[in-house]
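Troubleshooting: if your tokenizer reports a length mismatch, compare your output against this known-good record of 272 residues.
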Amino acid sequence: MPTNQADLAGDARDPAAEEASSGVAVLDRAFAILRAFGQTDDRLSLAELSRRTGLYKSTLLRLLAALEHGGFMRKLDDGQYAIGHEPLRLAALYQRSFRVGPVVEPLLEALSRELGETASFYVRQGDMRSVLYRVEPARAVRVSIRVGEEFPVRQGASGKVLLAFTDTHDARWNDVREQLWAASYGERDPETASASVPVFDAAGECVGALTVSGPKSRLAAAPAMAAALAMLLSLAQKATVALGGAGTRYDAAAVRDSLARLASSADDAASS
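Known-good structure output:
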């Protein structure tokens, strides 16, 4: 049956379609406001939000009022804006969706307490890696990171681990896949060293990277790195077993041999 051009024109002006399109545009603008806040931004002025989002102040005020009503934004006494309470509730739901918190958090406590460094658990989010859990030591000089912070996945020990076990056909990470660990020395921060190992679930999927980070002056030396990796592998094995995964993969010869080589280099350095 021939298509009536008038019908096509009518469909193009479908009020429901236009309303949906308009609604998506409003959501995009609201998300742009939330994304305008960086990791160090406790509050932003209306002028700064306008500059960062490219939205007119009149448009911003309408959207900010709606976000404030929903708990996503707060208007402060000085007229500036801050993130509201609702994202915190959603963040807690996001954490629980991984179902690893009760398993991982006690291990992070033990890791940080034993090594005296910052212990964290990273997950991959596209081209970024996010801090899902972390425990910091009490010592004054330490690596300080916050839950929810994001870093490029192609930097750092945890990034290497996450890439190795999510981009499983990328030959660049074959060594990491075989030895089950990665180390980095000043890749993201020139003064920081880190070591990381994967944690697996019952399906054999990598659910995240158990990581320790510290000043290069303490952690970069071979003896300290070897000790950190030995503990990381032991705790990651416990986490994997608790999540229903195969703990035996941490006992593979390639894992033992790589750690033995690192420990041997530490002994050689100590005796020279």
